[in-house]
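Internal QA ticket QA-208
Title: Verify multi-chain structure generation after dependency bump
Assignee: T.L.

Test input:
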Amino acid sequence: MSLEHTLATLQKIIDRWPDLVAARIKGTPRPAIPGTHLSDNGRERMNQQRRDDLADADDRAPGKTIPPLHIDILDLMTKLLTDAHTLANHVMQTTGQQPLPPPISTAMSPRPYLKRIIEFLPQACADDEDMLEAITEKADLMHDEILMALGEVFDGQRLNAVCPFCMGRTSKRLAGELTMRVRIRDIGTNEHPNLAEFLVVCENPDGMCQPFAREVDTWVGTNPAWRYPRWPWLAKQLHTARRVG
Ligand SMILES: [Zn+2]
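Actual output:
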């Protein structure tokens, strides 16, 4: 972890924001990526889930229309804006600056907040030794989320975060192994053959990741996994784990 790395990550979030704004419009291509192999049972379960989702979105159902925007990307944009404001104020307060006003609309860009973080982070890190770790973890996650939303994540990509459930404990290390990976799972149906979904999977090599059932969204083999809608929740667990750890 270094200040340069974190400043570069923040800049990448600023640079990629326009791509996210463009990608929220339906019809903007998001690549279909071949998924990993699923058991017949797993495939049937996923297909049923997908059929339910499609039925929910069916514009022939009474009172339903298909929104022209990708709701998941709009949700992510709102979240990134809130995160950027919170982080910026953390940095501003640490360095004795006036807090920044909260966004007045979810349509605002987080870039002014991110620019302030870049401007004041070096001083904030000098004032508070925990600052770099806190901002780095969050900035890495924000950047990962953007790449995933844009479909630029590759299957097997390792997340730069320690799993909050096993804390990265393996037979070789007490803690801190980076066990979380992105997996892309095929959820195609006959009508929609190219559907895939992103999962975060903890691939602890020694099977030492054993969250409570209610904390697990789904499973990939014997590994706990979380689908995209659960990522904000997962991010919160990462944050809590960092504070406690
Ligand atoms: Zn784990």
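Spot checks passed. The CA atoms of residues 128 and 194 lie 48 Å apart.
Status: verified.
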